[in-house]
Amino acid sequence: MKSVGLITEYNPFHNGHLFHATLSKQRSETNVTIAIMSGNFVMRGEPAIYHKFKRTEMALSAVDLVVELPLIGSLSSSDTFAEIAIKTAQYLDIDIISFGSESASLKDLQYLATQMIDYEKHPDFKEKLKQGKSYPRILSELTHNDTLLQSPNNILGISYLKAMQQFAPHMSALTIKREGSLHHQKVIDHHHFASGTSIRRSLMNDNVDWKNVVPNQIQSLYCKPHTTVEDTFPFIKHQLITQPKESLHSIYTINEGFENRLQTMIHRSDSFESLLSNLNTKRYTQTYIQRVLMNVLLNITKDDVNKEINAVRVLGMSEKGRSYLKYLKANYPNRHYITNVNQKTAHYFKNEIKATHVYNLLSNQSQTDFNTPLVRI
Amino acid sequence: MKSVGLITEYNPFHNGHLFHATLSKQRSETNVTIAIMSGNFVMRGEPAIYHKFKRTEMALSAVDLVVELPLIGSLSSSDTFAEIAIKTAQYLDIDIISFGSESASLKDLQYLATQMIDYEKHPDFKEKLKQGKSYPRILSELTHNDTLLQSPNNILGISYLKAMQQFAPHMSALTIKREGSLHHQKVIDHHHFASGTSIRRSLMNDNVDWKNVVPNQIQSLYCKPHTTVEDTFPFIKHQLITQPKESLHSIYTINEGFENRLQTMIHRSDSFESLLSNLNTKRYTQTYIQRVLMNVLLNITKDDVNKEINAVRVLGMSEKGRSYLKYLKANYPNRHYITNVNQKTAHYFKNEIKATHVYNLLSNQSQTDFNTPLVRI
Fold first, then answer.
1. What's chain A's Rg over C-alpha atoms?
2. How close does chain A come to B352, measured CA to CA in Å?
3. Least confident of A3-7, A254-258, B170-174, B176-180
4. Which of A234, A241, A298 comes nearest B242 by C-beta?
5. Among partner residues B237, B242, B361, which is closest to A299 by beta-carbon distance?
6. Distance from CA of residue A219 to its chain's centroid?
7. What is the pLDDT of residue A262?
8. According to the annotation, is B226 in a ligand binding site?
9. Where does ATP bind (chains A, B)?
């Protein structure tokens, strides 16, 4: 069975995702479509607007199998996000990764990926890192401001391609053009497509524009967001007040004394938004800061980080997904494809289970990894 | 200057406290009255209904000097509470401790205190502790159910007397009769006196009964409680979900694997009240459990515990209190009587400062140890 993998967040699922999934199937000429989806927290450094179980249901309108991207992936910068996603794809024996990019030229992106693997070995690169420059800035300096590197989906695509070269050399890639300008748009101004940001805003504000830009047959799944990032603030404040510096220092992604800045700024902040603006410096991107705060919220320490895949959490599947899972289990009897979490399998997913408990605390939801059955359609 | 010390919580201050302070002054024939008062968290294992600054203002209607009982004292069982309170009194050169008791016979209580110091050295005592019996139960067995030990203020008084024998042999004691039956009454049914419980309830429910039982001249200080113990629940739940077992194990007062019970029961609980009832066993008293939960909330670890007094935090004073402080500073130039907390003195009060920050998070108050001047009348 030939399979195509999509690395996704579906926060929430919309027509752009449907379009990408449909084209990916056609162009890859594969039988099975697999989404590797972020769980309850997303790469922007926020809780997802709906929990992963609902987002799985949405996803199954377009794909055959939904597995959870390990939490560490979702709360890392693009290279680690890509590494963990590609290793997950490898574990699932995926043949082709299909990703959206502004460029849509696989050749150009491949060329940059190869170049960047070289750049990163260069002494200049390490020197600039030491000087406190951000990773995207260094790359754009080293590549003489290559315009390809000014588009977020190109950057992520290049990270996938780098990870594939390093960790999954037999996997192939496919890229589908997406409109960069859409990505950060604040309001819905297109008849069929809109950015995640504008859709989340529409759902939050109870305005019905979102109805035009999500697939008809799953509209009943959409409701007011389960939670927003502001709900995290009291808990983050509590952590920053009560944890000693050494504990904060051990939190994943905190480095260079950022814990000091956190403990100073928390006393001047009375909302997530004000904390972000107090923490803002040239040195760090907003998403870096948000991911740090989510790692604080979830108490993810450097010791909790494992970039290897020892098991994959299956969140949902269609009939075709079920056949594919059978095929995987037959071919890789020593791998762990887990469709239900229980006392025996929970140890593989400690971070994800914790994230679900915290998500429920934020959102007053009650579906846990233990009490929620595999989603099937 | 001869001084009398009152070990108090004033949660909130009421006529019973005024009565006790007045009689203490008369009977001790002293010039200065000093309250050693719990800060923002009280021995019942709860946040106080008003922050310590407001409670200091209330207290100064009856006493000359208000100092803060170190947080560790407030969140410990009666022996450690008493030890830290008596050591604080010693640091303040207090001559006489005056406490309320149901018995009112200093001789009887002294006799029991001496007996109990002996009992605690007895192998039987340690054996019973190992069997998992609670401290009050063992004592009542060893003293053949002495009726004196069935009244909470007698027990606390005996703890003071024991601590004085051990740590402040030159300090003397005075006890004033209080009506035991009042202590836990739920409603106000007396014209002038009522229990703290019934007064807190009246304030919470916006019923005006409390007005009859607090001193007239300070009634304007009373308002709806700043917070209740239920406000702590989301934060405690968050801690119990996100902290690994080893971290919980290091929390002060947690022992014998109580961390396991906490992590199991938190998932079955959706309020502080339900958590308490889920945690309830014969082995532990409710106040023990509540104090454990406050130590979790404040992240007070075993390493944060210091039973020695290296400085005393002065919260408020009258003119007479000011003279006494002058006298202390002249006589003990190496001791630290701190009237304002700043970067230089903050290290003495790490636990108390943290408790204030958490109290403010719970209650939406904004008076910190740094921005609140000494209360003076």
1. 20
2. 11
3. B176-180
4. A298
5. B242
6. 23
7. 97
8. no
9. 7-20, 100, 153, 178
Domain count, chain A: 1
Within a domain: residue A234?
yes
- Do residue B357 and residue A299 have CB atoms under 8 angstroms apart? no
Domain residue limits at A286: 229-304
ipTM of the prediction greater than 0.95, yes or no:
no
Of A242, A299, A358, the CB nearest to B358: A242
Q: Each residue of B161-218: pLDDT tens digit?
A: 999 999 999 999 999 998 655 555 666 666 678 889 999 999 999 889 999 999 999 9
pLDDT at B189: 63
Q: Is A243 on the interface with B (CB under 8 A)?
A: yes
- Give the number of other Cβ atoms within 10 Å of residue B93's Cβ: 17
Nearest to A361 among B234, B298, B361 (CB): B234
Cβ–Cβ under 8 Å, residues A44 and A128:
no
| DSSP bridge partners of A339 | none
What is the 3-class SS of B244-269, one letter each residue? CHHHHHCECCCCCCHHHHHHHHHHHC
Query: Which chain B residues touch A354 with a CB distance below 8 Å?
Result: 241-242
Decide if A267 and B357 are in contact by the 8 Å CB cutoff: yes
pLDDT value, residue A104: 86
**CA-based torsion, A152, A157, A162, A167: positive or negative:** positive
The answer to whether residue B87 sits within a structural domain is no
* SS3 labels along chain B: CCEEEEEECCCCCCHHHHHHHHHHHHHHCCCEEEEEEECCEECCCEECCCCHHHHHHHHCCCCCEEEEECHHHHCCCHHHHHHHHHHHHHHCCCCEEEEEECCCCHHHHHHHHHHHHHHHHCHHHHHHHHCCCCHHHHHHHHCCCCHHHHCHHHHHHHHHHHHHHHHCCCCEEEEEECCHHHHCCCCCCCCCCCCHHHHHHHHHCCCHHHHHCCCHHHHHHCCCCCCCHHHHHHHHHHHHHHCCHHHHHCECCCCCCHHHHHHHHHHHCCCHHHHHHHHCCCCCCHHHHHHHHHHHHCCCEHHHCCCCCCCEEEEEECHHHHHHHHHHHHHCCCCCEECCCCCCCHHHHHHHHHHHHHHHHHHCCCCCCCCCCCEEC
Evaluate whether A9 touches A43 at the Cβ level (below 8 Å).
yes
Distance from CA of A335 to the nearest CA of B (A): 27
Question: pTM of this prediction?
Answer: 0.93
> Is pLDDT above 80 for B137?
no
Q: Letter for the amino acid at B100?
A: G
What count of residues does chain A have? 377
* Residue A347 touches chain B, beta carbons under 8 Å: no
- Quick check: A238 contacting B, CB < 8 Å? yes
Q: Is A161 left (phi over 0), alpha (psi -120 to 50) or beta?
A: alpha
Q: Which of B164, B145, B43 is nearest to B94 (CA)?
A: B164
User: Does the distance separating the beta carbons of A299 and B243 come in below 8 Å?
Assistant: yes
Inter-residue contact B313 to B341 (CB < 8 Å): yes
> What's residue A182's pLDDT?
55
CA atoms within 13 A on the CB side of A56: 24
- The amino acid present at B7, given as its one-letter code, is I
In a domain, B265, yes or no: yes
Q: Does A172 touch chain B (CB under 8 A)?
A: no
In a domain, A5, yes or no: no
